[in-house]
Design goal:
The protein is mainly beta. It has three domains: 2-331, YVTN repeat-like/Quinoprotein amine dehydrogenase (Methylamine Dehydrogenase, Chain H, 7 Propeller), CATH 2.130.10.10; 339-609, Methylamine Dehydrogenase, Chain H (7 Propeller); 621-702, Immunoglobulin-like (Sandwich). The protein contains one helix and 61 strands. The longest helix is centred in the first third of the chain and has 24 residues, at 2-25. The protein is globular. The protein starts with a helix and ends with a strand.
């Protein structure tokens, strides 16, 4: 026993060190609003509690419009339940499982149970409060035992529960009948406080149990391959004696709720890559289920508030809110969205534009968000800029503006601009410029618009320096400069098809992001210098001062502290999605990164107080070339963990060497070399990296 106890202590100590280390070294913060998690509950006074995964409890006192973190900011809250003024929470803090009770709507909590997580004693979904105020739970034993909390301790109520070795759910109806859902063994019911039990709804796998206000029992079944049933929803109006199937088969049902007019809603999750997740509504007229237009995600919980608002909780996407019975939904933050544009007025007020999901706004630094989803603004936002009190948005349907921080928008380009607007900017005189499919447009007043050159080009980017000189990036014809307010344009080179972004720093130096790195000009485009950064496209640029340049790539954010000469990959710790589409620096010096289908992140500390963090490789690694297939150039990346002699060669399928790309000593780091296969025929080629005993070979395809 002493040995076991010592082992447990050692394991817990290791866990504490690992958790502490992660908390101290996280470089990025997720600021997408409420994190994903498990549970929702509305208290008797209307307050809504949200149990997150690892981030404690969030609360809302305005029917789910705004959420704020409570004083309980850590731990995973798996279950929130209760009755009247009693609220029960089951959570773990990485070391212990806890059962907590609150009698003041979640303001303060007392501990009813505390046990190491490697020996849990209560099922996380199986602690409930009866109408009489008694707290019941099921123990994690085989078979489980029904227990009740009395006088400061848990007492066994029943020890005769049958062979239920896989409990999934627990419910107590308004007549104090007990229902236990199980895997494959249906529902077990007791009408005498656990003295005797009988079995119904066999052989179904019951994933969730719900008691309605009318004492109707709802069971959500899970379809399991090889079982005799396809699961679905079942209803009993006679204390579980008989059950009526209601459909929604072949789904993993996590929660069922019924509104005041009898409409039923179900939250589901994806299961074994076979069943799609989402939220569904049961139509009472035709007795059919229909899904809502929500992302394909894991919906762990669902509640209907006292005002009739639907709140669905997604493990990936956070809170979704609907006030019209599920017809339209609003997300609490840009989580899992592609954030393509960022406008940070300061550290608290941030506006972001997404690709396909419109605009999101926060006024408290990302604690909660307003989804500005409305017919007033298109859903594809390509860029955002501010001039005085007016904000301008470049969209797939023209230029839009707002003067009330994003609440109401107007299409100021009307029918004057054909096609999409990819960038919008305003010069010192108030002239507005738009980059479009058909060149550049200019408006002196936001009402009238004029064609302003490059009409035969697709202009993808616009930027302006402190002298009101305009730079335009085109998709096929390179970079252009205008020194007379857009009336005339001069080509300044870089005719290529991989330009992704264009920006000018405070010194007037021009930076162009392409595949593999940047081009920089310090003399208005007269000459260009190429700087290799990464084996991917460079999608975003931002500046801090005259020397610091930030670059967003497929693999994260790179930083240069010498105006682009040398680059370092910033730590990706905390950055769940490294595909960075947009960058911005707020007034406090924090770096904001908008990601592809990953939402928005912010550095945990201002860049002024963060030393360059290099993530050096720990092993040799040969990366897949990009692009692949290619014509005629491609980039080959590799990683070196220590000072080593490295040889990188290219061979054809006959084993003949066709190119020697590297044959020298390399310091630890990540490298990219370019291979121009202009003189080679189409086909499959092999490239081989060798350093000492390490050898790796990969294929690539040249298509001409």
């Amino acid at each position: 026993m002493v040995i076991i106890k010592h082992h447990i202590t050692k394991v817990l100590a290791i866990l504490l060190v690992q958790i502490s280390s992660f908390a101290q070294t996280a470089f990025w913060q997720d600021i997408n609003g409420i994190p994903g998690g498990w549970s929702l509950y509305q208290c008797v006074n209307g307050r809504i509690l949200v149990g997150t995964d690892s981030n404690g409890i969030y609360t809302s006192d305005n029917d789910g419009l705004d959420f704020f973190p409570s004083q309980y900011r850590s731990g995973s809250y798996y279950t929130l339940s209760g009755k009247d003024k009693i609220v029960i929470a089951l959570y773990n803090d990485y070391i212990f499982d806890h059962v907590l009770r609150s009698t003041d709507n979640g303001e303060t909590w007392s501990t009813l149970h505390r046990q190491p997580i490697i020996r849990p004693t209560l099922y996380s979904q199986c602690v409930k409060v009866s109408d009489s105020g008694h707290i019941y739970g099921l123990t994690y034993t085989n078979p489980p035992k029904l227990v009740r909390y009395e006088n400061g301790q848990w007492k066994v109520v029943d020890t005769t529960m049958p062979y239920i070795n896989s409990v999934t759910s627990f419910a107590i109806d308004h007549s104090n009948n007990f229902y236990v859902g199980t895997m494959r063994f249906g529902v077990h019911i007791s009408t005498d406080y656990g003295d005797t039990w009988y079995q119904r709804l066999v052989p179904h796998w019951i994933a969730t149990l719900t008691v309605t206000a009318q004492n109707t029992i709802l069971a959500g079944g899970l379809s399991v391959q090889g079982d005799l049933s396809e699961g679905g929803v079942f209803l009993s109006s006679n204390n579980g004696e008989t059950w009526d199937p209601l459909g929604l088969t072949r789904k993993y049902i996590r929660k069922l709720v019924v509104d005041s007019i009898g409409q039923m809603f179900g939250a589901t999750v994806e299961y074994q890559n076979f069943f799609g997740g989402g939220v569904y509504r049961y139509n009472l007229t035709d007795r059919q289920w229909s899904g809502f237009n929500l992302p394909f995600e894991q919906f762990e919980d669902l509640i209907i508030t006292t005002s009739g608002t639907l709140l669905a909780y997604s493990y990936e996407g956070g809170i979704y809110r609907s006030t019209d019975g599920g017809s339209t939904w609003y997300q609490s933050g840009p989580r899992k969205r592609s954030v393509n544009a960022i406008l940070a007025k300061d550290s608290s007020n941030i506006l972001v534009g997404t690709l396909g999901s419109g605009l999101f706004k926060t006024t408290n630094g990302g604690i909660d968000w307003d989804n500005l989803l409305s017919p007033d603004i298109p859903q594809y936002i390509y860029s955002l800029t501010r001039h005085g009190s007016t904000i301008y948005a470049a969209t797939d349907s023209g230029v839009y503006s707002t003067t009330d921080n994003g609440n109401q928008w107007s299409n100021i380009s009307g029918g004057n601009i054909s096609g999409s607007v990819y960038a919008v900017l305003v010069n010192n005189f108030g002239d507005i410029f738009a980059a479009t499919n058909f060149g550049v447009y200019r408006s002196p007043d936001g009402t009238t618009w004029f064609q302003s050159g490059l009409e035969t080009s697709v202009v993808s980017e616009l930027t302006i320096n402190n002298s009101n000189e305009l730079y335009a990036a085109t998709s096929q014809n390179g970079i252009f400069l205008s020194t007379d307010n857009g009336f005339n344009w001069v080509s300044i080179g870089l005719v290529r098809n991989d330009i992704q972004t264009l920006a000018v720093n405070s010194s007037g130096h021009v930076f162009v992001g392409v595949y593999g790195g940047i081009y920089r000009s310090t003399n208005q485009g007269t000459t260009w210098e190429e700087k290799t950064i990464d084996t991917s496209y460079l999608y975003a640029l931002a500046f801090k001062g005259a020397q610091t340049v930030l670059a967003g790539t497929f693999n994260g954010v790179y930083a240069s502290y010498d105006n682009g000469d040398n680059w370092t990959l910033l730590s990706n710790n905390g950055l769940d999605q490294t595909f960075v589409l947009s960058l911005a620096v707020d007034q406090a010096g924090n770096l904001l990164a908008g990601t592809y289908r990953g939402g928005l992140y912010r550095t945990a500390q201002p860049l002024t107080s963060v030393e360059p963090v290099a993530e050096l490789p720990v092993t040799f690694k040969l990366l897949q070339n990009y692009p692949n297939p290619f014509n005629p150039k491609t980039g080959l990346g590799f990683e070196v963990p220590a000072l080593s002699h490295v040889v990188l060669k290219v061979y054809n399928l006959l084993g003949q060497e066709v190119a020697l790309l590297v044959d020298e000593k390399k310091q630890p780091g990540r490298y990219t070399v370019s291979w121009d296969a202009s003189g080679q025929p189409s086909g499959v080629y092999l490239y081989r990296l060798q350093s000492g005993k390490f050898v790796d070979i990969k294929k690539m395809i040249l298509v001409k």
